[in-house]
Every structure is written in structure tokens, then in C-alpha cells.
Design goal:
By secondary structure, the protein is an alpha+beta fold. It has 13 helices and 16 strands. Strand 14 and strand 15 form a beta hairpin. Bound molecules: 4-amino-1,4-dioxobutan-2-aminium adenosine-5'-monophosphate and magnesium ion.
């Protein structure tokens, strides 16, 4: 049977015409029945729902159906008929069967339902065949599409920032090195240091932690741009919210101040969540039922309520006044930890919060300095269950102030000369932010571990698949 003959299960269930001959291909979820009839639940990943295929055993032999076991891949043809059973509109009355790929019943790992998430991570090559990961992967796709649609509709341009970079200007975290040098026989300079001139790029190269600096160059020419790509952080953070390889969406806009930046971030997040509610209803209902029965209410709540906006200094006052035992101490100047962020969002304001004007010491060199000399025009968006979902800022566009900060932080000027030049030639006020794609997916799917919203997670000591 050829692919051109088949109809996807989603279409059959939704708009298949009763009384017509149809064909489907997919993987067997379950088979039950008796010697007169067999019922097979078939799924092809186009939807969370299976189509029921009914085999009348007067037309098929036991032998023919032997290969139809949980996990096997089959092709069927038959008549689409009204389904007498509840739960589905139509089913296929099979008259043709082809087993494309058998799945041995004793060794196929996804026999029964209800595997732990930890076990499924160990079989990440097969977990897309579970209802849960099917749902997560379809939602992941829908969110990626919605991101491009949102920006395209607003006239933003998609900029491809490089993945390999020569500068560690962001300072966002430890970086992975990219080299072709022979590690067992490193070239040395006269003073014994590694001679990076000999390396592929003639200098040290790393995997990028952020596409922001390049996005800024785009914004200062095309006004409104965004990047959407993989980013890499080599910190040893073994938490349910950190990956060593994650995807980030980074819009960057000329002429936006921090207020415009916050407005965009809030509108963007609400758009994406609304998009998921409208286009991923089946998958969200499944996740709501199976994992978190407040999920859909939480999504609706976020789109219906304005985010709370307040300066970091006010947030510290609230945290100091809270009657809480903190694992990490709270004081002005402290970087907020997830426990503090979640207290503000879940206990105090009970809705998403945007914190602004952080102490300059805990933020990156490029953030616009406030007149108080102590704070910068940063903004972090904090979400229920997640903590920080977005980090961003208005950027320092004044050449002298930026240069001073670069000197204070001992950032080598030779690494950022090109960035500095944009402040020398036609500088403009501008702002941007970064949304962690997997953090967004944690929120939208209700999954609790970031390893379960990316197909193949990369974390410390884990690079399988
Ligand atoms: O706050 P971050 O480090 O900001 C930047 O990288 C800026 N250059 C963004 C910008 O202004 N263009 O990271 C931005 C977001 C965080 O809010 C978080 O959602 C996500 O990226 N993130 C991670 N997600 C998964 N694993 C990690 N290790 C992450 N680190 C940051
Ligand atoms: Mg941050």
C-alpha cells in the first residue's frame, strides 16, 4: 500500500465520509477481541485520538492477525462506518491488512500504560509513541509555528544568529568549547599556553549562550527582528528547569523603551497561550485529565489577567516582609532564586509578575543604566510553576556609558568592538528579551520537568540519543 492512498487518522475521525473506502497506516496501541472479531486502536501521531479498526474474523485468519500486536506498524484498508461504540464517530471495517513492522510482544518496552517519566526518558527514542509525548510534541510544533506567525504578522524579520561564536560577551553562563585541535597533543605558545591560532577559526570558539548581540545588530538596521534557535549553557544546573541545550526566542526592537518591551512580552505570551488553547484543545484536554487538572484553568487565567509590574526593590521589600524560611537569603542586591520568584507569583500576587530595575551587579553589561547609578532597566517575567520565563532589558545605547561598563567588568574590547560600533554610528534606543522555549512549554503542557518537553534533552552527564 502506498502513502498516497492513506488518509491521516485526524482527518478520518474529523471529516471522513461514512460509506467510503479508506486507508490508514499507523502503530497499534491495543488489540482486543475474540475469535469472531478483533478491535485494534490505531494511532499515526496526527492526533491524540486513535481510530478503531474492526477485523471480522470471517475475512481474516488468526495467522494474518498474529503480527498485529501493541507497537506494530500496520497498513489497513476498509469501509468507513458509523461507530456503534462510544468515544468515536467512525471506525474502519477492515478488508485489507499489511503488517509493515512487527513489534515483539516480550521485548517492546511500551506494552502497558503508566510508565514513569523517568523510565520514558531512558527510551526517548520510543517515547514519542506514547500519548503524553505525542501531545507534547504536537504542542511544541504548534508553539514554534505560532511564534513565527506572531512576529511575521507584526512585521518582524527572522534573523539567524550564529551558533558558533568567538566571543563570550553575554556573560550568561559557562560555554561549551568548539575545537578541532588534537586534545592529546595541543599546540602551545612560547609561554606554554594553548595556541588558539592553530585552531580551526584561528581563535577560541564556543557554542553561543544567546543570539541577542547579533539580533541587536539586526534591529539597528531592520527595526524589529527576532531570533529563534538553539542556545547552550555549560552550567552544572541539575534542576527541572535547566537544560544544557535549549531553544530561545529573542526579539530585538529599535525605538522600544522598557515599557514597550514589557507590553510586547505580555502580549506575546498571551498570544501563544491563546493559540495553544485554540489549536491544541485535544492534547491540552488529555494533559489536563492525566497530569494536572488545573492546567487549562491556569492557561485561561493568564490570558485574562494583566501581569503585575513592579521594580526589584519593591519585590525585595515584599520578600523581606514575608513570613517565610528561605533556602537562599533575601537582601537588596541578591539574585532572586526560584523560591523567591514563585513566592511572588504564586503566593503574593497570584498572577504573572514582571520585575524591573534590577541591581546592575547581577545583570549583564549591555543593560541600560538608570540615573540612580545602582540599577539597570532589566525586566524578568515570572510565571506560576516556572519562575523566570523571560529575561530582557532596554539596552544601553550611549557609547560612553556602555564602554565604561565594559571596562568595569573587564570584558576585552577586542571581543565586542563590532557591538560598540553600533553605538558610535547611528545608535538608537532599543530593547529586547529572551523567552526560553522549553520554559514556555513547561507552562503550556503542565509538565513538571524540562527534560519532558524537548525530544532529546541534554543535561549534565546525559547526551544519549
Ligand atoms: O535570562 P537569560 O539568560 O537572558 C538572555 O540570554 C538574554 N540574552 C535574553 C535577551 O535579552 N535577548 O535567558 C533568557 C531565558 C530565561 O528567562 C529562561 O526562560 C531561558 O532563557 N533559560 C533557560 N531555559 C532552559 N535551560 C536553561 N539553562 C536556561 N537558561 C535560560
Ligand atoms: Mg535571566
Amino acid at each position: 500500500m502506498r502513502n498516497s492512498e492513506r488518509t491521516k487518522v485526524k482527518l478520518l475521525l474529523h471529516s471522513g465520509v461514512v460509506g467510503t473506502e479508506v486507508a490508514a497506516m499507523g502503530w497499534v496501541r491495543t488489540k482486543r477481541g475474540n475469535k469472531n472479531v478483533a478491535f485494534v486502536a490505531l494511532n499515526d501521531g496526527s492526533t491524540i485520538h486513535n481510530i478503531q479498526v474492526v477485523f471480522d474474523m470471517t475475512r481474516f485468519t488468526e495467522e494474518q492477525l498474529k503480527g498485529v500486536t501493541t507497537g506494530a506498524c500496520i497498513a489497513v484498508k476498509g469501509l468507513l462506518v458509523d461507530s456503534p461504540g462510544s468515544g468515536q464517530r467512525v471506525e474502519i471495517q477492515a478488508n485489507y491488512l499489511e503488517v509493515l513492522g512487527e513489534a515483539d510482544a516480550t521485548t517492546y518496552p511500551l506494552q502497558k500504560k503508566g510508565h514513569s517519566m523517568e523510565f520514558l526518558r531512558e527510551i526517548a527514542h520510543l517515547r514519542p509513541r506514547t500519548n503524553t509525548f505525542g501531545a507534547v510534541l504536537r504542542i511544541r510544533h504548534a508553539m514554534a509555528y505560532a511564534i513565527h506567525k506572531y512576529f511575521n504578522d507584526k512585521g518582524f524579520f527572522y534573523i539567524h544568529s550564529p551558533i558558533i561564536t568567538g566571543s563570550d560577551a553575554e556573560g550568561a553562563g559557562a560555554m561549551f568549547r568548539v575545537t578541532t585541535l588534537d586534545l592529546d597533543n595541543l599546540p602551545r605558545t612560547e609561554d606554554g599556553k594553548i595556541d588558539w591560532n592553530e585552531d580551526f577559526f584561528g581563535k577560541e570558539a564556543k557554542l553561543t549562550v544567546s543570539g541577542q548581540l547579533e539580533a541587536e545588530l539586526g534591529a539597528l538596521a531592520l527595526s524589529e527582528v527576532y531570533t529563534f534557535g538553539p542556545t547552550f549553557r555549560a552550567e552544572n544546573s541539575n534542576t527541572p528547569r535547566h537544560l544544557a541545550e535549549f531553544w530561545m526566542i529573542e526579539p530585538e526592537m529599535a525605538f522600544y523603551d522598557i515599557q514597550d518591551n514589557m507590553d510586547l512580552a505580555e502580549d506575546f505570551l498571551k498570544y501563544l497561550i491563546r493559540y495553544a488553547l485554540e489549536h491544541c484543545a485535544d492534547d491540552l484536554e488529555f494533559l489536563n485529565k492525566m497530569y494536572d487538572n488545573e492546567l487549562i484553568d491556569r492557561l485561561k487565567f493568564v490570558i485574562e489577567n494583566p501581569f503585575e509590574r513592579l521594580p526589584y526593590t519593591k519585590a525585595i521589600e515584599i520578600l523581606e516582609a514575608a513570613n517565610q524560611k528561605w533556602e537562599f537569603p533575601v537582601f537588596w542586591g541578591a539574585d532572586l532564586q526560584s523560591e523567591h520568584e514563585r513566592y511572588l507569583v504564586e503566593k503574593h500576587f497570584k498572577k504573572p509578575v514582571i520585575l524591573t530595575d534590577y541591581p546592575k551587579e547581577i545583570k549583564a553589561f549591555y543593560m541600560k543604566q538608570n540615573d540612580d547609578g545602582k540599577t539597570v532597566r532589566a525586566m524578568d517575567v515570572l510565571f506560576p510553576k516556572i519562575g523566570e520565563i523571560i529575561g530582557g532589558s532596554q539596552r544601553e545605547e550611549v557609547y560612553d556609558k556602555l564602554l565604561n561598563r565594559i571596562h568595569e567588568l573587564h570584558i576585552p574590547e577586542k571581543d565586542v568592538w563590532w557591538y560598540l560600533e553600533t553605538r558610535k554610528f547611528g545608535s538608537a534606543p532599543h530593547s529586547g528579551f529572551g523567552l526560553g522555549f522549553e520554559r514556555l512549554l513547561l507552562f503550556v503542557t503542565g509538565m513538571t520537568n524540562i527534560r519532558d518537553v524537548i525530544p532529546f534533552p541534554r543535561t549534565p552527564k546525559n547526551c544519549e540519543f
